[in-house]
Specification:
Order of helices and strands: EEHHHHHHH
Number of helices: 7
Distance between the termini: 47 Å
Strand content: under 5%
Strand order of the largest sheet: 1-2
Bound molecules: heme C
Largest sheet: 2 strands, antiparallel
Length: about 220
C-alpha cells in the first residue's frame, strides 16, 4: 500500500456515533442529498477494508485476518442491535413526547444514556477493533448491559410512571409500548424470565462444559 497520513483511508466502521455505521454511509448520503454523482475515486467501506486487510496480510495469515474481522463485526452489530438502537429509540421517543425537556443533560436519563453509548458502548466497540478483550468485555459489554438493565430501563420506567400520574398518560403509553416491545424481543426476553426452556438448557450445558474445560483441577 502507498504511504498515507490519512488514517481514515482504511477504516470500515465508524465507532464514534451512538449507533455505529459503515464509514461511507454519511458521505454517500451527502452526495445523494445534493444530487451529485459519487466521484469515480470514491472509496467504499468494502474497498477501505480490503486495503486494510492487504496490510494485515503482510504479517498474518488469511484465516487470522478474516477471523479478526468476523469477531469485530459481530461485536459492533451486537452493541448496535441489542443496546445502541433500542436506547436511541427510547430517548428519541421520550423527547418527541415531551417526557424529557429539550435541554440536554438536565435529566438523569440523559447522563445515563451518555455513559451507555459514549463511554461504555465505545469502549466495547473500540476494544474489539484493537483486540483488547478486557475493554470489550469488562469495561465494555458488561458495563453496557449493567447500565442498560439496571439504570437506563429503570429510568425510562420511572419517567413513564411519573408521566401517568401527572396527566401525560397517552404520551407515557407510546413509550411504554416501545419499551415492552424491546424487552419482549429475542435478545432481551431473558430479562423478563421468558427465555425458552430449550435455550435455557442449552446455555446451562454450555456453561457447564466451559467450566469443566477451564477447571483448575485439570
Ligand atoms: C508489521 C507486521 C504486522 C501487521 C502489518 C499487522 N500485525 Fe497483527 N500482530 C503482529 C505481531 C508481531 C503480533 C504479536 C504481538 C505480540 O504478541 O506482542 C500481532 C498480533 C495481532 C493480534 C493478536 C493480539 C492479541 O492480543 O493476541 C491480532 C488480532 C492482530 N495482530 C490482528 C491484526 C490485524 C487485523 C492487522 C491489520 C489491521 C494486523 N494485525 C497487522 C504483526 C503485525
Amino acid at each position: 500500500m502507498p504511504v498515507s497520513h490519512e488514517v481514515g483511508n482504511r477504516i470500515s466502521w465508524t465507532l464514534r456515533p451512538k449507533v455505529s455505521e459503515k464509514i461511507d454511509v454519511q458521505e454517500l448520503a451527502k452526495y445523494k442529498a445534493k444530487g451529485m454523482e459519487v466521484p469515480a475515486d470514491f472509496q467504499t467501506w468494502e474497498m477501505r477494508r480490503k486495503n486494510m486487510q492487504n496490510v494485515c496480510l503482510q504479517c498474518h495469515t488469511k484465516n487470522y485476518v478474516t477471523s479478526f474481522y468476523t469477531q469485530y463485526d459481530n461485536e459492533v452489530n451486537l452493541y448496535n442491535d441489542k443496546f445502541g438502537k433500542p436506547a436511541l429509540k427510547l430517548i428519541n421517543l421520550l423527547r418527541a413526547n415531551n417526557l424529557i425537556t429539550p435541554v440536554q443533560f438536565d435529566e438523569q436519563i440523559e447522563w445515563t444514556y451518555f455513559y451507555l453509548w459514549h463511554h461504555e458502548g465505545r469502549r466495547a466497540r473500540m476494544g474489539a477493533s484493537m483486540m483488547g478483550p478486557d475493554y470489550t468485555q469488562w469495561h465494555g459489554n458488561f458495563e453496557v448491559a449493567d447500565n442498560f438493565y439496571m439504570e437506563f430501563i429503570p429510568d425510562v420506567k420511572e419517567i413513564i410512571h411519573e408521566a401517568k400520574i401527572h396527566g401525560k398518560a397517552s404520551q407515557a403509553r407510546v413509550v411504554e409500548k416501545e419499551l415492552n416491545k424491546i424487552l419482549n424481543s429475542e435478545m432481551h426476553k431473558w430479562f423478563l424470565g421468558k427465555l425458552d426452556p430449550e435455550e435455557l438448557k442449552k446455555r446451562k450445558e454450555a456453561a457447564k462444559a466451559f467450566r469443566e474445560r477451564y477447571s483448575e483441577s485439570k
